[in-house]
Amino acid sequence: MRCNERIQSEQQGKRAGFTLIELLVVISIIAILSALLLGGIQAARLAVIHAKAAQDINNLKTALATFHAEFGGYPPSSFALYANSTGDPSWRTDTANPQRLAKSRAIISDLFPSFTFTGVSGLSAPVVEYNGAECLVLFLGGVISAEGVPRGFSANPASPFKIDNGKRVGPFMEFDLKRLQATTNGKLTYLDSYLGQTVPIWYLSAYNGRGYSVPDPSNASLSHDLPPGMRDCYRQVFSMDHNGTNWSVTSEGRSKPAWKENAYQLISPGKDGVYGLGGYYADGMPQPKQPTWIGSLPDWNTKWGLFQSNRQNHPDPSLTGGDQDNITNFATRLN
Predict the structure, then answer these.
(1) Who wins on pLDDT, 264 or 299?
(2) What is the maximum alpha-carbon separation in the chain?
(3) Which one of 97, 141, 157, 165 is CB 3.0 to 4.6 Å from 114, fit for a cystine?
(4) Is 161 in contact with 143 (CB distance < 8 Å)?
């Protein structure tokens, strides 16, 4: 009896343990499950960050619609303010850049018809120029207070850029103050919600249907409104097959159609902080169509001939991501 009990006890002891192979199998299963779980958590986290950045674009769209309803047009994406000067108001002359003065006066006349053109008080320089990202904050947020907070515009139509305690118009956008980024001469830009982002959301105006300001193929040195690195605004693809590989456009060169050709393009650079090249795009494409040679050929006609001869996707290999993770106001996402 005792012998049987001893044998049974030894057998139970053996069954209570694990072999080395069994332990390795269990550890492997746990490692795989952990990787899957962590991957799912990371994917969910990135989806939340992306959704927040996309919501920023939606909020800006709403603010721009409100601005348009108030002033009858969309903001510009390049602009200059002129300070008061001794003797003659500086809005009358700009010997350094007369085109800049003419453009800024025309914009002011469209948006603020009662503006007196007697100069703007409180500027930190005689002429303060705004790019697309800075225009976005200026026109949706209004004049920046001494505390660095957008305060809207004065309700006095003759001097909308004045900071006072009277009635004000706007701000049209409730900016997250922690994501406002100071540039120069008291200007601000707005960052998307990606962690560690240093490149602002860019605003590109179509000037109410007059067209986007992009480089002239015959003279690329002329000023334009595109953000750093972009070579064209986003343009529509006319047709695609079901795989998104064959495509054509309605006209040659850099003529229409552009996305939102009567309004504006908002471009969040996304996780990689790179605006990319821009170019022809349709919702569902992996990225805009841009050949690798786009910046190296001597003239646009040669570029276009090669562009047409190969209708496959040719992303610039020097870019790590470029347009692929951008978030815009005309497509949910570029990738």
Answers:
(1) 264
(2) 120
(3) 157
(4) yes
What would the pLDDT profile of 18-54 be if each residue is shown by its tens digit?
A: 687 878 888 888 888 877 777 666 667 777 888 888 8
Length of the chain in terms of residues written: 335
Question: Which of 185, 238, 212 lies closest to 76, judged by CA?
Answer: 212
Tokens of 16: 């209570």
Say whether the peptide bond before residue 315 is cis (omega within 30 degrees of 0).
no
Rounded to 5°, angle at Cα 162 from 82 and 178? 95
Beta strand extents in 206-320 (DSSP E only): 234-236, 239-240, 247-248, 264-268, 279-281
For the cut 60, the answer to whether the pLDDT of residue 12 exceeds it is no
Residue 294's pLDDT is what?
40
| CB-CB contact of 144 with 151 (8 Å) | yes
Residue 279 contacts residue 239 (beta carbons within 8 Å):
no
- The whole-angstrom separation of Cα 161 and Cα 144 is 9
Q: 10 Å Cβ neighbour count for 238? A: 13
Entry pTM: 0.76
Give the separation between CA 134 and CA 143, rounded to whole angstroms.
12
Residue at 152: amino acid letter: G
Task: Examine residue 171 and say whether the peptide bond preceding it is cis (omega within 30 degrees of 0).
Answer: yes
Tell the residue number behind the tokens 């069954």, with chain if given: 15
Q: How many CB atoms lie within 10 A of CB 157?
A: 13
Closest-CA residue to 304 (of 258, 249, 234):
249
- 80-116 pLDDT, tens per residue? 999 876 545 568 888 888 889 999 999 999 999 999 8
Rounded Cα distance, 176 and 182, in Å: 13
Tokens matching residue 109: 């006349």
Please, is 160 exposed, middle or buried when counting C-beta atoms within 10 Å of its C-beta (0-12, 13-18, 19+)? buried
Q: Where are the domains of the chain?
A: 51-205, 217-259+271-323
